[in-house]
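Form 12-C: Joint structure prediction
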Amino acid sequence: MSSAKERLLESAKRLFSQKGYYATSVEDIVESAGVSKGTFYFYFKSKEELFKSLVEEMHLNIVKRLENFLEKELPLEDALIEYAKVFLEDIYQNRHIAQIFLFQLVGTNEEFRELYYTKIAHLRELLTKMVDRAIQKGEINYKNAENIVNLYAGFLRMLVLEYVFREKEPDLERVKSLAQEGVKVLFRGLKNA
Amino acid sequence: MSSAKERLLESAKRLFSQKGYYATSVEDIVESAGVSKGTFYFYFKSKEELFKSLVEEMHLNIVKRLENFLEKELPLEDALIEYAKVFLEDIYQNRHIAQIFLFQLVGTNEEFRELYYTKIAHLRELLTKMVDRAIQKGEINYKNAENIVNLYAGFLRMLVLEYVFREKEPDLERVKSLAQEGVKVLFRGLKNA
Amino acid sequence: MSSAKERLLESAKRLFSQKGYYATSVEDIVESAGVSKGTFYFYFKSKEELFKSLVEEMHLNIVKRLENFLEKELPLEDALIEYAKVFLEDIYQNRHIAQIFLFQLVGTNEEFRELYYTKIAHLRELLTKMVDRAIQKGEINYKNAENIVNLYAGFLRMLVLEYVFREKEPDLERVKSLAQEGVKVLFRGLKNA
Amino acid sequence: MSSAKERLLESAKRLFSQKGYYATSVEDIVESAGVSKGTFYFYFKSKEELFKSLVEEMHLNIVKRLENFLEKELPLEDALIEYAKVFLEDIYQNRHIAQIFLFQLVGTNEEFRELYYTKIAHLRELLTKMVDRAIQKGEINYKNAENIVNLYAGFLRMLVLEYVFREKEPDLERVKSLAQEGVKVLFRGLKNA
DNA sequence: CATGAATGAGTATTCATTCAT
DNA sequence: CATGAATGAATACTCATTCAT
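Section 2 - Result
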């Protein structure tokens, strides 16, 4: 049986992702976790701290995965396709926390927005590094790595927003295939500049 | 001199976009507008209703602009580039309310998220129509209009998120040129499928 | 066509009697009367003053009617029966304002309760006088006039509460006949002490 | 020492009965009880719910008492006299909550009025049963049980209104003796029909 | 006479957080 | 570790009343 802290984390993830940070009360969380309020504050300094720790967790997951990818040094097209698939799978597996990270953080309040931009900057850096390498290797002819990240990351975000989060039971295979097609389109454009 | 209602609307836009829906209190809004609480409720049924009316306003603006574009029947590449520029200009001019529409709605609570998806669906439809026309005319060879919308709209969203909203004083000309470059890359990819 | 003041009075009577003093807002009243708030305060100093003036009006009505009855110097039984009928008819005709007078005044707040007791004391006095006369004339053998008023007035109040006010469309003839029967029962008891 | 909940209930009873439902604020109640606002809402869902629970409590008290009386199967005159005494004693002991039940409920708003009629209907039924039995046994000759209840209950209500609630320190013995006399008068009337 | 925009004190209710047990 | 009673500042919203036009 899961511990009180784990149950609190699970409940928080689910409720934050469903109802949003503000509309989720500590009361909601402890009730759903079946523990007392005192217990909540034994494990977490505050509601905000819990939220931020979820964000941190998700961020570290994505970063780790992305760094692993970088080490493989795949050709860019393969890398972009493979990573897109892994990313979508990952996001789907961690839907709740991912929703918080990708779409709640920016829109909730000033502090969270800043946190978002800090975390995202890190991820963009990693992606930029990957693209830069391909530019150096002459794999593509459009050489603005930052803007390539805009195209690629914007596309992935859109897929997540429109398919993974919007639909109750997303057809992940279809989303992955959309991702693959999209990246191919993109890559052709990058090569033929 | 501006009327009480106008001042309330301006204050609300600014504060919602800065601090977010929940972190902005009616107190904040009326204080910033220099009117009493009673006046707020004389003009708006509730904080929520005011928020939603701002969203509606922005939505109608974007739809109108997009419909105008559709009527022009430009070649797709030109249309995508021109619309991107107009869109970015527009979003910049209406930064506050646009921030609310594009990034707060999804992340705030369940009701707002549903509202977001409803509004966005409408915009995606219009874009899809534009792309479909180009497919019929043989302008491009990748024929999944929906996915092209994912690529294009995702890219624009990312530009807004990373440049227009992130930076205090965004260099709009640079963003537009990134947009133009990105669309060209994309279009090449679409043509050479 | 009725004047603004009359329409305000009518609306106030109806709304106060239906929803109660506190649950009826000045807004409700002016809306239902089709006039502006300014007009309300042109004719009435305050919501409370309007309410009290309605109470005063009803009180004067009942007092006048009762005094007329006293002058007739009927035998007690006839007087009690006749007055009961007239009273019920009257209350029915002025249902709204009567509801306010008889049942809202006591239960609403301290000030109104005191007002109620003052007004009611006056009515009880008149009734006591009527009964005293009958005692002096030897018409009845139970000689506690105050308690007779308790029996009689309590009975009438109960009829009003249970039949005139409770039912949407009260059968007034039936209520009057209940009143007549009840008074006869009462009178027999008074005579045979 | 009494618990926070008990103190809240006591304060609420007293204040509601003195100032009325609307004129008593939650602030008033918690201040008088010496607890915080949060504590109020820890124990009661709302001001209205607390009010209704007081009503329910009083209603159950009266019903229980009345049912006990019914079981005794006393001759009607004795029953009416004995019950009147017990009722007055009871009402006096629970003055505050009784005032709420008997005189505030009807006059406050629509919802409470309906609640009043529901509760009172129950009490009238029990009394009617008691009277019906006496009619069947031939104890009285006036056979309209419902109207007898009107006479009896109206009389008791009037005693409560005029003596128990009106006076700061009511002379309960005198009220009980008025009740006894009144019932005797009534009973003679009923017998000699 | 009449309007309706504007006021601001007041109200019920929420909720993150604390702490004695 | 765990509980849950208690806190009180904060919040959205109401409403009687005023007053310039």
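Section 3 - Comments
The radius of gyration of chain C is 19 Å. Residues 4, 35-39, 42 of chain C lie near DNA strand E (CB under 10 Å from a C1').
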